[in-house]
Predict the 3D structure of the following.
Amino acid sequence: MSIAVLSILGVTECTEKEVCEANRLELGRNYRVHLLVESKVHTSTVVNEFLLNYGDEICPVGGEISYSDGEVECSVHSEK
């Protein structure tokens, strides 16, 4: 029984990471489109406003989302 529980937990963690990665990729694409459409230049203020309007359902476990060096990062799932 404990092996099955550990296996399920591993699958759940992997799925959460994959969902977070997919959401971050989509967020990054949408942010770049936003900059182009709105004729804006990236600044911390612009990205913070965008993130506020985008919503908070990026990371399924509530990781903090940030934008650095052209990449959307998660405090839980990012490699850096």
Residues 2-37 form the longest helix (36 residues). The first strand starts at residue 65 and ends at 68. The mean pLDDT is 87. The CA atoms of residues 28 and 47 lie 10 Å apart.
